[in-house]
Amino acid sequence: MSALADLLSSGIVVTVLTGAAMLGAISGMLGAFAVLRRQSLLGDALSHAALPGVCLGFLIAGGRDLGSVMLGAFATGALAALVMMLIVRRTTLKTDAALGIVLSVFFAVGIVLLTVIQTQGGAGNLGLMTFLFGQAAAILRSDLWIMGGIGLGALALVLAFWKEFKLVSFDADFARAQGFPVTLLEAGLTVMVALAIVAGLQLVGVVLMVALLIAPAAAARQWTNALGPMVLLSATIGAASGAGGALVSATTRGLATGPVVVLIATGAVLVSLLIAPGRGLVWQALAARQARARISDGRVLATLRGFAQAHDDAGYPAERGMLQTALGAAPPGTRIASLERRGLIRSVTHPPETTPHWELTQAGHAEAESLAGQPDGPEQEREP
């Protein structure tokens, strides 16, 4: 606790921690809409499209001027979003193709400009690299005001147009049929994503920003089906990833903050994919195992019931060989033991035979009858 207190007593650490948490919350909130609109590549395209804007801002200002670089990044990001929307609206290409075109073309332009800047030499080039890969230590308190303004503006827009954004995210065609300005709403969401990318230039950089946009939303999507909880959870995961990455970076010398933030967010995705109730891989595996067990139990009960009906004897005992012949394979001992524990069958003797026999209990008959009455029950014969 004392080490943490000493760490938080540093003004630089507090600034980076606050900025990372704010950026994670903004990215998580806006990334949720991108994920629901199936435009996860949007963040990647806009973040790469910000590269030529960073270079142009650097060239115009003649050095590492934060205002010029951020304005240039936003300008090229917004232009990329406009070009993408025009391609989708005016051609037969789908959104993913338009995003791929925008990403590759704008990033290629950025690489060319970056090469031009590098040929000029000078110490200023080192400052440019901080916008490409992020440098959390370069964040100033004044930058927090910019992040806070972007975050409050994005939150205000989301709250003001919550119903419209919700409808556009889930069913844009229906929203268009109802007379909503879908193109304008989608443009608003895209511009907010571009603003989030601009806000993350200092901390994460244009290369890794897409991960901070998509990872918290992808993790949150595994835990809920409702938009409100998803946006809130995504923002929380993003903020926690940002704060956690800042703390880990501050306690480890030479460890960059941006990549650590992204790795923590990615870890949240992996954990969510594994253990999220209902959707996690672990839960799905357990559900599949339980389903197979129910089917196996149902087949055993149906077979015993069929023997009892064929011999007009509710307590007719059947031995393993009979079950194996009827089922095509001997029922696993674990399934027999499970049915016995549940009180659906019981082991009985059948002199002079010495092999184990089983018969249905009253509860077993009721369960077998219930299964037979279901549409896909074990005993139901399907018509050809």
UniProtKB/TrEMBL annotation:
Keywords: Cell membrane, Membrane, Transmembrane, Transmembrane helix, Transport. Residues 348-384 are annotated as: Disordered. It is a multi-pass membrane protein. The keyword Cell membrane applies. It is found in: Cell membrane. The keyword Ribosomal protein does not apply. It comes from the Bacteria. The chain crosses the membrane at residues 12-36, 45-63, 69-88, 97-117, 145-162, 189-214, 226-248, 260-282. Pfam families: ABC-3. Belongs to the ABC-3 integral membrane protein family. This is Metal ABC transporter permease. It comes from Lacimonas salitolerans.
